[in-house]
Amino acid sequence: MPKQNYCLLSAGPLRRLTALVYDSFLLFALAVAYAGTVLALRVAISGEAAAVEPFRGWSAVFYGLGLWSWLGLFYCWCWRRNGQTLGMKTWRLQLQQRDGSKPTWPQCMARCLLAPLSYGVFCVGVLWCLGQSGRCWHDLWTATRVVVLAKE
Question: In the predicted model, what is the mean pLDDT of residues 78-84?
């Protein structure tokens, strides 16, 4: 049975952005690991000349989509595991469904696709949480919410 956490406050934009800054350090490390893996595979398949050859055309598109998927998988895994990334845990934030339960895989994947829209247009979708609902656009679109957990 999911916990009923209706008394928890919705997270504001500053706390969300600060958690994202914390997460960005980990995302950078994941991106470096991805790039290193792709480079090693390219060299193993095409030889040493591939190490200095930049991605062009479709290979650049596939590289970008792979990186996006890799970073999205990190977020989905963290959210499904306990509703928090490392940055969210530091700032006592948790992603939940409206009833307080963990988000589903489809909700997590949708958030990964839709959150850049909220952040991308001068953060209007994130600032939306200053309104009555306390939820950003991507929260509304995925039927989730980010709450501030009580101090333990």
Answer: 96
